[in-house]
UniProtKB/TrEMBL annotation, chain A:
Family: Belongs to the heme-copper respiratory oxidase family.
GO molecular function: cytochrome-c oxidase activity; heme binding
Domain Cytochrome oxidase subunit I profile: 19-528
Keywords: Electron transport, Heme, Iron, Membrane, Metal-binding, Respiratory chain, Transmembrane, Transmembrane helix, Transport
Listed InterPro entries: Cyt_c_oxase-like_su1_dom, Cyt_c_oxase-like_su1_sf, Cyt_C_Oxase_1, Cyt_c_Oxase_su1_BS
Species of provenance: Candidatus Geothrix skivensis
Entries under Pfam families matching the protein: COX1 (PF00115)
Lineage: superkingdom: Bacteria
Chain segments annotated as transmembrane: 37-59, 79-106, 118-140, 160-182, 203-227, 247-271, 283-305, 317-341, 353-373, 393-413, 425-452, 472-493
Record's protein name: Cbb3-type cytochrome c oxidase subunit I
UniProtKB/TrEMBL annotation, chain B:
Organism: Candidatus Geothrix skivensis
Keywords, alphabetical: Membrane, Transmembrane, Transmembrane helix
Membrane spanning residue stretches: 16-37, 57-78, 85-106, 136-160, 180-199
Keyword Nucleotidyltransferase: no
Pfam families in the cross-refs: COX3
Similarity-based family: Belongs to the cytochrome c oxidase subunit 3 family.
Subcellular location: Cell membrane; Membrane
Protein name: Cytochrome c oxidase subunit 3 family protein
GO biological process, any: aerobic electron transport chain
SUPFAM superfamilies tied to this protein: Cytochrome c oxidase subunit III-like
Principal subcellular localization: membrane
């Protein structure tokens, strides 16, 4: 680069190298551009999966069953799950906002391995393309559900091998991102940026990265075994050859339960950034939040078998896993109490990011508490594999991670694009989103309590009214989503220019121009205090 | 070119160690499967182990251990700026790695010859525990073999980089990291040897 001779660097959105336009973007090693590459690709997949969810709800209005067969329905819920989990929720916040903001938040120019970072995006896209290919090639779209349970996944004629291979590659991408973030946090903190001066988003990303590192390889080997089993019949999961399908379930959930924390921890990190800014107060209980992230990562790795309470395990194992499951609720609750305490006596500046952050807290509490309910053995047996699980899961993943992602997007939008969206349009989109969300997913929990099993193509007449209500809820929700992203897209192209610090935030990203310059900082800052010091501003 | 020239050898090594952690966990999943199955079928695993050729297994262990030594010698040579010696050591590593694969191929070939391979008609007549034993044997040694091949490819690139001075006395972290990877391949084999060959 020949730019550092000049007084000010150009914005990262301006092509400065010899490459221009799309080529410049596809060969970039700038963490900010890679973050946007992830954002654009993930949002595309997100809307595909939303569309599939929409169709799935229509199927439950029985009039549409002429159009969609039971087999297609099986494929729809599988693909909805695979796309949402592996292409959106798991990589979402770390890959988009972690990439964009982690180096800025710790005062670095980029991540430790910029080229590896770009490679991770290509792995991500390769996995995504294979996942999409698996729908249209071979024996048809996979119909196992996103969990690929053996022995059905070993026997079905549909295209499970390719879908599983896609998930394998996506896992690889996620792991490499994790390695990159851990190394970045260890090596590239600005002078004076001690561990306890890092913004909480960094702690969340750090714990997430460790789970990615320690859990994802287990998924990789499990999925590899499914492929080997399908091609060569090695027999490890096949009871006919002395194998054990329960071993599959254990291995799968040893990854996939910690993966839930991969999904929620960065969301909690983003919320911990947003609340102090709009309460104009330092976060309450900084260390408690930081350590609770690490303890969620730790304890969360020991609870996997609560997905298998009805699969057949010893009574001792059941009780242990039930107990551990309830213990995870403690660090999560610590966070919630600290967030609420941060707001207490703050001088609250009500803005769209805060609205979505509060929505996160509300929905996450419902999702979290219903999670504790299911951790109780006696209740679990009754609601296992019902719509209750589906409702709970969407409260945590969509109401939790999804809403936090929207909040983070609203919070950092002016920084990322240097434009401001219409706040009125965002508020307006919130109403259908919030009402639709609760109609849809609370309705599902009620259905589950009534006894509606998940993944069923048909339902008994007594469930019909609730199915209609949830389906109408899904329309409101999608309307809200369209309004929300419509407003943001409009703002990218036609929005007013944003100030460098529109919210009055005090972390490092608000000290640099919007959009950030190519190397983030003119000069690497020296840090002399903790991240949330509002005393100097205002009061 | 784009990007800033930023060099952090310690960071590069840290990243490599983290990657090795993921590799260990990857094999860890298989070791969990192995422990569980062995607990379930102790007699069959014992019998299966006695069918394997322990002599070849031990020879291969010696081959791999020696190859780890030659990688270390290559790094020492680079630190002393002895380019030719470094290339010779790397070449020796490549040859030893290939030897390992050849011996492995003979071993697998013999098993195939006896009709012992996944999904074979002969294997289907054996008790379930032995079927699982051979399933794990081929999976774990196979995955290890894949790692040997990857390691050889990486070391091959290193040989080329040493030859073209991209790896040299003041800049050898890539070679160090490749060496770390090769040691991991070695360490995993050290666990596979007793679990399969010496367990009889």
């Amino acid at each position: 680069m020949s730019t550092h001779a000049a007084t000010a660097q150009p914005s990262y959105l301006v092509d400065t190298g010899t490459r221009k336009g799309l080529v410049a973007w596809l060969t970039t090693t700038d963490h900010k551009r890679i973050g946007l590459l992830y954002l654009y690709s993930m949002m595309t997949f997100f809307f595909v999966a939303v569309g599939i969810g929409f169709v799935m709800r229509l199927v439950q209005l029985t009039t549409f069953q002429k159009l969609i067969t039971a087999q297609t329905y099986n494929a729809l819920f599988t693909v909805h799950g695979v796309i949402m989990i592996f292409l959106f929720v798991v990589p979402g916040l770390p890959a988009i906002f972690g990439n964009f903001f982690l180096p800025i938040l710790i005062g670095a120019k980029d991540v430790s391995f910029p080229r590896l970072n770009l490679a991770s995006w290509y792995f991500f896209m390769a996995g995504a393309i294979l996942a999409v290919l698996s729908l249209f090639t071979g024996g048809g779209a996979p119909d196992t559900g996103w969990t690929f349970y053996a022995p059905f996944s070993l026997k079905t004629g549909t295209n499970v091998s390719l879908a599983v291979f896609a998930a394998f590659i996506l896992g690889f991408s996620s792991m490499l991102t994790g390695i990159n973030f851990i190394t970045t946090i260890h090596r590239l903190r600005a002078p004076g940026m001690q561990w306890f001066r890092m913004p909480l988003m960094c702690w969340a990303l750090y714990s997430t990265a460790w789970i990615q590192l320690l859990a994802t390889p287990i998924l990789a080997i499990t999925l590899a075994l499914v492929i080997l089993e399908r091609f060569f019949g090695i027999g490890i999961f096949d009871p006919a050859k002395g194998g054990d399908p329960l071993l599959y379930q254990h291995l799968f959930w040893i990854y996939s339960h910690p993966a839930v924390y991969i999904m929620i921890l960065p969301a909690m990190g983003a919320i911990s950034e947003i609340l102090p800014t709009f309460a104009k107060r330092p976060i309450f209980g900084y260390k408690a939040i930081a350590f609770s992230s690490m303890s969620i990562a730790g304890v969360g790795s020991l609870v996997w078998a609560h997905h298998m309470f009805t699969s057949g395990m010893s009574g001792t194992a059941l009780m242990l896993f039930s107990l551990l499951t309830m213990i995870v609720a403690v660090p999560s609750a610590i966070k919630v109490f600290n967030w609420v305490s941060t707001l207490y006596k703050g001088s609250i500046d009500f803005q769209p990011p805060l609205l979505f952050a509060l929505t996160f807290i509300f929905l996450f509490c419902i999702g979290g508490l219903t999670g504790v309910m299911q951790g109780a053995l006696a209740i679990n047996v009754h609601i296992h594999d019902t719509y209750f699980i589906v409702g709970h899961f969407h409260y945590v993943m969509f109401g939790g991670t999804g809403m936090a992602l929207f909040a983070a997007l609203l919070y950092w939008f002016p920084k990322m694009w240097g434009k401001m969206y219409s706040k009125k349009a965002i508020y307006l989109s919130w109403f259908p989103m919030f009402i639709g969300f609760n109609m849809l997913y609370f309705g599902m929990m009620i259905l589950g309590m009534m006894g509606m099993p998940r993944r069923y193509y048909v339902h008994l007449p007594q469930f019909h009214t609730m199915h209609v209500i949830t389906t109408v809820g899904s329309w409101f929700l999608i309307l809200g989503l369209l309004m929300f992203f419509g407003a943001l897209l409009y703002a990218i192209f036609k929005g007013e220019k944003a100030e460098d610090n529109p919210w009055g935030g005090v972390t490092l990203e608000w000290t640099i121009p919007s959009p950030p310059p190519l190397e983030n900082f003119e000069e690497i800052p020296t840090i002399t205090r903790g991240p949330y010091h509002f005393e100097q501003e205002g009061k | 070119m784009t990007g800033h020239v930023h060099r952090d050898d310690f960071g590069a090594r840290l990243g490599m160690w983290l990657f090795l952690v993921t590799e260990m966990v990857l094999f860890g999943g298989l070791f969990i499967g192995y422990s569980y199955m062995r607990y379930r079928y102790p007699a069959e695993f014992h019998h299966g182990g006695s069918e394997l050729n322990a002599t070849l297994g031990i020879i291969n262990t010696l081959v791999l251990l020696t190859s780890s030594l030659t990688v270390v010698l290559a790094i020492v040579a680079i630190q002393r700026s002895e380019k030719k010696r470094a290339m010779a050591c790397l070449g020796a590593t490549l040859i030893l790695g290939l030897t390992f694969l050849v011996i492995k191929a003979f071993e697998w070939g013999a098993k195939f010859h006896h009709g012992l391979y996944p999904n074979s008609p002969h294997l289907a007549t054996l008790p379930p525990g032995e079927q699982v034993f051979y399933g794990l044997y081929f999976t774990m040694t196979g995955l290890h073999g894949v790692h040997v091949i990857v390691g050889l490819a990486v070391l091959g690139v290193m040989l080329w980089w040493v030859a073209t001075d991209r790896v040299r006395q003041d800049r050898y972290v890539h070679l160090e990291n490749s060496g770390l990877y090769w040691h991991l391949v070695d360490v995993i084999w050290i666990f596979l040897l007793p679990l399969f060959y010496l367990a009889a």
